Amino acid sequence: MSLINLRDPDSKRAPIWVPSVTVMRIEDLASRVSLPALTRPGCYIAIGLPDASDQRPYAMCGEGKNVGQRLMRKIADSGREWDFAVIFGCEQPGWPRIAPKYLEWRFTGVLECAPHFDLQIGQSPQRDHVSEAERRALDNYVLEARRLLVAMGHHFLEPVPVCEPDVLRNGMAPSSPRFDFNELLKPSRLSPTDGPMLAPAPSSEAADWDAEPGPGLKAADPVGSRYRLHYGDLQATAIKLHNGDVLVLKSSEMSATETTTLPRYIREHRATLLATGVVKPHPTDETKFVFTHDEPFRSPSRLAKCLTGSTQGAGAVWRISAADTSRLT
């Protein structure tokens, strides 16, 4: 990509480093490790997909003088399976030597704020000193790199992991075989499969609802709004009450498994639901619990975390259906 380097007497102005971003499959890394983008200094993000539908993808961030070799060593030492890598090039005219470490610190911060990832951290990166002008240029690099990834069709660094269906359908046609993080990060797509990635069929109780998910749950939704849970193969329905609570209906399902990053207060709430008989083990699926009666939740966020056993936000997993416009009377 082109490089614009500003040179003038004002020493407070820094060069503009245009992002150099490479997205690739880990399985292709060994055969491409000699490419210029991988033999130079850089920062990387590696992403692995989990084995179960109620777990989140995991990620790690790092840097190296020879970024391809460094990434291969980290993958070998991690003892985990990794699927994708994103390489941010860090060698352009005037590039400061410590820039890769600064970018590692910045991208690690971005990943920590991404609710759809479990971030794997060995030693937490430190913020290396850069001049004020270099900091502005490097922060702009991070911003433009994220915009470039979105333009490429990859939204995995953005706060909301699940895009609307029309965004996925209307993506730009690739010039070569590629993958779509948006599809892979959708909760219903996390289970590995050799066939087409299809959403699970709705239960008989929800068969009369729209197949397409509507807008995500919002605090301003009107009383009587009805929601469906879109997370893996869990089937759950809920209604917004007059007092603002969200009422989970009897026979709704709750995941029996939990992510490692689930907050303690959510774990305790889930344990209370089971101990008091609000939920019971699913009769045919040991990975789920079933609600024995309708149960109100004051907080939609707590509700989403309790049912999924993850830190997914309410707006990402609770979706309103256009067919459900009824109001409570």
Provide a concise account of the structure shown.
The protein is an alpha+beta fold and about 325 residues long.
Element layout with pairings:
Layout: E1 21-25, H1 29-32, H2 36-39, E2 42-48, E3 58-64, H3 67-78, E4 84-89, H4 99-112, E5 118-119, H5 132-151, H6 165-169, H7 181-185, E6 226-229, E7 237-240, E8 246-248, E9 253-255, H8 264-275, E10 279-281, E11 288-291, E12 295-297, H9 300-308, H10 314-317, E13 318-320
Parallel strand pairs: 3-5
Antiparallel strand pairs: 1-4, 2-3, 2-4, 6-7, 6-13, 7-8, 8-12, 9-11, 10-11
**Residue-averaged pLDDT:** 76
Structural class determined from secondary elements: alpha+beta
Helix count? 10
Spell out the helices and strands N to C: EHHEEHEHEHHHEEEEHEEEHHE
Sheet with the most strands, sense and barrel status? 5 strands, mixed
Overall tally of domains: 2
Largest sheet: spatial strand order: 1-4-2-3-5
Inertia-based shape: elongated
Helix content: 25-40%
User: How many strands?
Assistant: 13
Distance between the termini: 61 Å
Percentage beta strand = 15-25%
Which runs of at least 5 residues are low in confidence (pLDDT < 50)? 1-13, 161-211, 323-329
